[in-house]
Amino acid sequence: MIQVPIAEVLQPRSPLAVARDVVALGKPRLASLVLCTTAGGYWLAPGHRDARTAAALLAGTALVVGAANALNEFLERDVDALMRRTRDRPLPAGRLDPSVALAVGLGLPCLALPALALLTNGVTASLAALALFSYVVLYTPMKQRSSLALFVGAVPGAIPPLMGWTAVTGRLDAGGLALFALLFCWQLPHFLAISMYLKEDYARGGLRVFAVVHGDRATRTWAAATSLLLIPVSLLLLPLELAGPLYGLAAALLGGGLAGYGLTGLWQRGAANRWARNFFLLTLAYLTLLFAALLVSGR
Ligand code: HEM
Ligand SMILES: CC(C)=CCC/C(C)=C/CC/C(C)=C/COP(=O)(O)OP(=O)(O)O
Questions:
Q1: Ligand 2 pocket, 161 CB below 6 A?
Q2: Residue 61 CA: which ligand 2 atom is closest?
Q3: ipTM reported for the complex surpasses 0.90
Q4: Helical H runs in 6-50?
């Protein structure tokens, strides 16, 4: 049952405030980093690149990601209302009617998927459709049932750089799959950390995330192990000749830093919320800097 603040029902809202909430449905901060990974895949892929295809790829991806997030917020509006982190989102707070999120989530892909197919290629549009489907239909309901949802959610999260790659090459090959693997592995420590410092909130919402189900100690161990795994996976780009020595150096240093901090988690006691929050922020810095290195030292 969603509680709607009385003031929000009575007061008419400005079009700007409504527009801001519609944009918020698309989770713009997360979507921005997703788009950086798409741009990275496009930048590294071998073949012909041009501004028109790049613009179509980024605009189409932004619209499908926005739609995926709007549908996720539509489906989770009751759960979001139970959790501190999400209760002020436009739907649980009652600032937007759920039908708006549903219309945005179903409407945008009708425009963006055919546009991606026409202006990039069929492989890229099919990957976008797969990411949308796996995020909304598989991952979102699975969060309430199993901590393994993390591995399902990491699939749509890893598809955008592959879309950037296929927008140039039109096919799935080793280079694109290496970028997919990099993003897939990065999401594991990213979310294991979050699940620790937000454990109470997730439990309140009835979501069976890793730290809720397996406890803090196991989560810290897995966070350390998966951050170590990122080092060889990120270095795979070197033998595949996607990036040069400067990237290699950056990947080794950034990976060493992240895994080094991850390993200090093994000596923490209890929930170690401050450690987990710092580790989450480090995952964001790691990915941003790694893609900056790719920009400079990519093929
Ligand atoms: C299994 C996959 C993922 C899960 C479960 C997940 C979950 C989350 C959650 C719950 C937060 C909020 C943390 C907080 O409020 O303290 C967050 C933040 C963030 N995530 Fe992820 N994430 C995943 C994948 C990704 C991917 C693929 C990207 C982009 C490439 C990404 C980028 C971000 C960014 C930029 C933030 C900080 C901005 C914000 O809180 O809005 N995440 N993530
Ligand atoms: C092309 C395309 C559609 C790509 C998908 C990109 C995408 C939405 C990646 C995010 C992956 C993910 C599992 C985020 C967490 O959602 P959550 O539901 O756990 O987060 P929340 O609790 O903040 O709602």
A1: no
A2: 1
A3: yes
A4: 6-10, 15-24, 28-44
CB 214 within 8 Å of CB 180: no
Please tell me the total number of residues recorded for the chain in this structure. Answer: 299
Q: What band does 7 get if pLDDT is binned at 50, 70 and 90?
A: very low
SS3 state at 298? strand
Nearest to 153 by CA among 33, 72, 63: 72
243 - beta bridge partners? 298
Tokens 């219309």 -> residue: 103
> Which residue, chain included where needed, has tokens 């995020």?
135
Calculate the CA 21 to chain-centre distance. 20
CA-32 nearest atom, ligand 1? 35
What digits encode the pLDDT tens for the residues 39-49? Answer: 999 999 999 99
Q: What is the DSSP letter of 265?
A: G
Ligand nearest to the CA of 138: 2
This prediction has a pTM of 0.94
CA distance 191 to 223: 9
Best probe residue, ligand 1, of 194, 230, 287, 290 (max atoms within 8 Å of C-beta): 194
Domain 14-172: give its CATH code: 1.10.357.140
Supply 211's token pair: 């730290």
In this structure, the residue with its CA closest to atom 23 of ligand 2 is 86
The neighbouring-strand residues paired with 298 are 243
Distance between Cα 19 and ligand 2 center (Å) = 21
